[in-house]
From TrEMBL:
Biased composition (Basic and acidic residues): 582-595
Species of origin: Nesterenkonia sandarakina
Record's protein name: GIY-YIG domain-containing protein
Protein origin, superkingdom: Bacteria
Alphabetical list of Pfam families matching this protein: GIY-YIG (PF01541), SLFN-g3_helicase (PF09848)
Domain GIY-YIG: 28-103
Gene3D superfamilies: P-loop containing nucleotide triphosphate hydrolases
Region (Disordered): 582-615
């Protein structure tokens, strides 16, 4: 027996009054409601839903909406109603059926008594609304989609909300001519929600800048909305003339974000830019938000001759010459008054990208002037932040104590096909289960589509056939994705192939890099322009970061296949082997070498990114 009721009627004053007379909960009970027409929808919450809907009618801002649905539940309290409001906004945004009209005024993802049980009720409510045609896709389909994962309609964690609030206050209190100041920096490990915060911030700035006079009326808002205080006429006038851009260096992620912006009211696809587009633009930006800033380039040989020419032309246009020290970060600073950088140095995987020393300087300065924000809470991997630290320590030959992670599946496979079969099973059950690998094999199928690229234990597969939205492509389940197709994305299960580019040296008791098995030419070539030669130890840093990224994509679990026998033996005690649980004695016999804290792999920023393997 359900505890909730869903009532529907026409969006007019008489219909609201009639409903209110038949049910006293319309005027004195926490409720959630939707207002919609065939294209658009608004979701709200109120203790006096009849009064709230009359206020909407009187304001005239939603006169083009035609239908009302009210969700009442005899067990609801204020916290549950607010949570359901956020739950529905997120999933309506991810479904794509309607244009969601809500402004991002800031419902925070807060815990409350018996929340897990309420969430079960929310799923049943979703099912009822799905049956009534409010949604076009199932709950798993929505929650696995990029439109949901990258949507700005999020209930932020308290930590994320604090970062957004501090950034917003900082921007609003800067004088209009205070450009070339220290950038705001948001730093965080994989899965801490950097991209979520960046996109949310873009939507919030756009919402304030485009707010109607009636939308500045706080009588129509919940006091729980964290950012309501920023919706003022003064702030709207401050933000509305500003040119704001969103920079994403990676091609695949950029395309996905652009699609989200295209579908989101008050955001535009044209806001999403690559660094070259920023440098070449005739427009000067007031604010540039840079996601995955660690992927910005320094002056190095680009993937194509045309990009080398563009780099030269941009430098000359912006600075008058093509000095070697200019980077894409310099372009960002030159082309904007204010910069907000989201980064994680440990996800840098390419020598051509901005060096560690630059980011260390940026971070140090940002901390000095209180423009540094760090995200800690793990939002992706169900095993928590401890898993991120554990994987990185294992890859750095630090021999951490064996850990078990509740409700997270970590398996080491001896047979490649068995891992592929498990990935297929998990994809059938949960969706978004994929194989990924380091660039340790040639891309033979680029020239001959009949050839496999990766053959292990008699089982052959090809590299990803597309670089854009590969995860959701039709053939992705039977392909292997590179670092550049998955960085910035979530998977439910990741099957990670650690190729022969990494091996274990029994004499040194450490993981080492094999240049002969690393096939990213741009990922290992020297930089004569800057006088840089990359030794194997330098490249080890980048390749370790690559596998660190791949091993932290899975929300529910990670599977591992290791090509080098010695490395497989070395890693086995730290993971559960498929079909076998390792004992304490196994772990005690594992090699233990704590890496010197002065070496690059133990430093705070780690390495820099390499180019997309198959762009």
């Amino acid at each position: 027996m359900t505890s909730y009721d869903i009532e529907g009627f026409i969006f007019d004053k008489d219909a609201v009054s009639t409903q209110a007379r038949t049910d006293e909960r319309y005027s004195n009970w926490p409720a959630v409601y939707t207002l919609r027409n065939d294209q658009s929808i608004y979701v709200g919450e109120s203790r006096n839903v009849a009064s709230r809907i009359r206020q909407h009618l009187a304001s005239g801002t939603k006169n083009d909406l035609q239908h009302v649905q009210i969700i009442l539940d005899r067990t609801f309290n204020k916290s549950a109603a607010l949570d359901l409001e956020a739950y529905l906004i997120e999933r309506l945004g991810g479904d794509g059926r309607y244009s969601v009209l809500n402004r991002n005024k800031g419902i925070v993802d807060s815990d409350y008594f018996d929340r897990n049980e309420y969430r079960k009720t929310f799923e049943r409510i979703f099912g009822s609304l799905y049956d009534r045609g409010l949604f076009t896709r199932s709950l798993p389909e929505i929650e696995n989609a990029d439109l949901f994962k990258l949507s700005p309609f999020k209930a932020l964690t308290p930590e994320q909300a604090m970062a957004v609030e501090d950034i917003l206050r900082d921007l609003l209190h800067r004088s209009p001519d205070s450009g070339n100041e220290v950038p705001i920096v948001v730093q965080g490990d994989p899965g801490t929600g950097k991209t979520v915060v960046a996109i949310y911030l873009m939507k919030l700035l756009a919402d304030i800048a485009t707010a109607e006079d009636t939308e500045l009326d706080t009588s129509l808002d919940d006091t729980d909305a964290r950012f309501t205080e920023f919706f003022t006429a003064a702030n709207r006038d401050r933000l509305s003339p500003l040119a704001i851009g969103f920079v994403v260096p990676q091609q695949s992620l950029r395309a996905s974000v652009a699609e989200v912006f295209k579908r989101t009211p008050y955001l535009e696809r044209s806001m999403v830019l690559d660094p070259f587009a920023v440098g070449e633009s005739e427009q000067h930006f007031d604010v540039l938000v840079v996601d995955e800033a660690h992927r910005l380039n320094q002056r190095a040989n680009q993937p194509s001759a045309s990009q080398n020419s563009r780099f030269t032309e941009i430098n000359r246009k912006l600075f008058g010459d093509d000095e070697s020290h200019y980077t894409q970060l310099d372009w960002i600073k030159q082309k904007s008054e204010h910069q907000i950088l989201f980064l994680d140095g440990a996800q840098s995987v390419r020598p051509a990208d901005i060096p560690r020393s630059t980011w260390e300087s940026v971070l140090e300065t940002a901390r000095t002037v209180d423009r540094h924000h760090e995200l800690h809470s793990q939002m992706r991997v169900q095993a928590g932040r401890g898993y991120i630290d554990y994987v990185r320590a294992v890859l750095r030959s630090e021999a951490p104590a064996r850990q078990a992670f509740a409700d997270y599946e970590i398996l080491l496979f001896e047979d490649f096909k068995s891992m592929h079969d498990r990935i297929r099973e998990r994809d059938a059950e949960h969706g978004l289960a994929r194989l990924v690998a380091g660039y340790a094999w040639e891309w033979k199928s680029k020239k001959d589509k009949s050839l496999p690229d990766i053959v292990l234990d008699g089982h052959g597969l090809q590299w990803n056939r597309t670089t854009k939205d590969w995860i959701n492509s039709r053939t992705s389940l039977d392909e292997v994705g590179s670092i550049h197709t998955v960085q910035g994305y979530d998977l439910n299960y990741a099957g990670v192939i650690i190729g022969p580019d990494l091996s274990f040296d029994p004499e040194q008791q450490r993981i080492v890099f094999s240049r002969a098995h690393y096939f990213d030419k741009k990922g290992k070539e020297n930089n004569p322009r800057l006088g840089l030669e990359f030794k194997d130890e330098d490249l080890l840093e980048y390749v370790v970061n690559i596998y660190g990224v791949l091993l932290t994509r899975g929300i529910k679990g990670t599977y591992v296949y290791v090509c080098d026998p010695d490395l497989r033996k070395h890693l086995a005690p730290y993971f559960t082997q498929s079909g076998r649980e390792y004992s304490r004695s196994d772990l005690d016999e594992a090699p233990r070498r704590a890496i010197d804290s002065s070496t690059p792999l133990a430093s705070g920023l780690e390495a820099q990114p390499r180019r997309a393997a198959r762009e």
